Amino acid sequence: MIDYDAEIERILGGPPSRLAFRALCAALVRAGNPAGLVSRCHERLASWPDRMREAPWSWLAALEAGHTKPTWEFVRSLQLQSARSGVLDAALPDPRSRSEVRGVTHLDLGWYASDGLAALVETMEYWEDLRSIQVGGLTDMDGALLTRLAGRAALARLESLDLVSVREDMWHFKKPPFRPPGGQAWRLRHAGLRAPDLVHLMRSGLVPDLRSADVLVCDLGEARDLAGCAELARLERLSIGFRCGKNGRQPLWKPYFGNVIDQDDEACEAFFACADLASLRSLTVRGTAMGLGREGLGARGIDAVIGSGVLRQLTELTLELLPVGDAAISGVLESLDRGRIERLKLADLVATDVTAAAFAAAGAFPRLRHLDVSRNHLGAKGAEQLAADVRMPVLEHLDLSGRESGSPYYGRPEVQPIGDAGAAAWASSPSAGTLTHLNMAATGLTVNGLTALMTSERLHRLDGLDLACNPVGSWPAHLRDAPVWRTLRTVDAADCGLGDDDIEALTTTVSAPCLHRVSLAYNTVGPPGARALAAWAALPQLWELNLHDNVLGDDGLTALASSGAAQRLLELDLEQDCWNAHARGNATQSPALLLDRAAFPSLDAIFLGIVDEYHDARYSSGFPSPSRQELASAPTTRPEVAAFLTHLDVEQLDDDGDDADTEGSDDERAEYDFRTERAVRHAEFIAVAQDFAHRMIEDDIGWPPPLTSDTS
Questions:
Q1: How far apart (Å, rounded) are the C-alpha atoms in residues 340 and 356?
Q2: What pLDDT shows up at residue 585?
Q3: For residues 123 and 601, what is the distance between their CA atoms, to the nearest angstrom?
Q4: Which residues of 48-83 are buried (b: 16+ CB within 10 A; e: fewer)?
Q5: Which of 207, 232, 381, 470 is 20 to 30 Å from the Cα of 151, by its Cα?
Q6: 263 touches 298 (CB < 8 A)
Q7: How confident is the model at residue 659 (pLDDT cuts 50, 70, 90)?
């Protein structure tokens, strides 16, 4: 029997997160929504960031399907995009008819969300508490829509408006102008815009309180015009992307240094030579991905940033997806005020162990809480230097991961070859004692690296551990009492080569008192592993369980559902890829027990069926067509199941046939299934990564090649 009063108190006393908010709401509903608890939640949630109080896609989809819940009154943020293959985004609710959303302050409409933005423009005046709008991927076809948005008086109430993200590459679409007329000053403190629009906004006098900006600069003239804005001196945070030229050359499926864009360097030089950034404390400069490389400004641009002197005043710096290399990064480290910097992200910059040596030469970063050197080319030596020779006494977040591949059927990770030696170095590092999050995904770890991390006595505060995309290969039973279990909240062991025996060993862990989130996606968990999970002592406390693309079968699914142990589970992923050699048939009926409320009484999101992750499509829903249609419309269907079934792209579905294989024979699927040669593939990825890192250290960049080379 769950003590919901104590449960809610534990959640409110823990770290705010979107998943914790959902858990709180589920506990409140199951407690009967008593007035005293509701009042306490209102009072305590007032201190949570509004973006953590988010209604996820599944809540909005259920609302569209006719299912509401009393905890909507606590919601302050909406996420409309499903981010699922063959699953439609939720529509934006109309606050005139949906009282549930009238307290919302933040709207994340997602990417290419013209329909959602159009609905918002029509109803802006009725979102009385709205303070933040975020939308990405707008194109020149949205010009009329942005003109209408610019004329809305309700914009004056906003504190944050993102119409552009520095993650956008500007390769395929132009951006329509956003030019609000002058008038009463707005409350806006943050804007994400193209440079000409930001210049217009600042010079119009509309945004006297603007302190943060994301901006894309697309030519030298825009850079100079933006730099000439005196209003830049008030900014405390600036995120900038230079998109002044294009190259696009890349070797197929090979790592390479990247493409330095001279026009971006020139624009960067012009901007940082003239811009008054006297108040700036946080700076981001971001390029774009290009295959297994990156494209954007190079060492000249970085020298311009250094030469401006702005680095010494920063508490936060992000450089990402830039073809710059070790020498430029070393110059950045020398120019920072190491006693001031608190957050440092140097990701996807072609850094090697030479950069780690530059960190070691710097010696100490006494206030650094967040360090991200992911998607680079550090090896074991570099990881060891960071762990042993750099003093970081308050470090909480460390990301050493490589570039993950997404679906292992269709992508390949770019490993940062830190390996077991690097993991062991961090397991015993003097800086490990304050770590709460450690990302070691795609770093070449085997079971030895896993063991070193799990048995570390120094990692006594760790609550998040990411091990995904590593050739771990087994989970030793002796880790059942590993010290790290005392504090872990989340474990990601996706694509780690784990089978039923490993899951049985993992689930011998009796005490993991903080654990709430586990991902075992892309492993080989079958019925025995599912039965072990069903009996796991930690299952009753989990909020999320990701079993995406495993091989559970009916027996395994039934074991999980019939145990009744997953009392707090909010989200369950049971999808399979169409190339899984043991994928269920497209027209196969999922076990009825999955739909039983008693199986997962707190569930608010479930994902079933067969997907094609290459084409971002869906072949089945987990139910034959007649059953799917009946369930989708039945008033007794669970809200989360109705949400899923009513938001499928039905034009893609093939769940009414005779289970004919749409992707080839069983032999072809077995050959294509990445599990067939998983160990060989991982060894190849690690060898390629080590060779590339060695060549970069030797200054054997080998790029750009002659124009006659095999590039695309």
A1: 20
A2: 86
A3: 35
A4: bebbbbbbbbbbbbbbbbebebebbebbbbbbbbbe
A5: 232
A6: no
A7: low
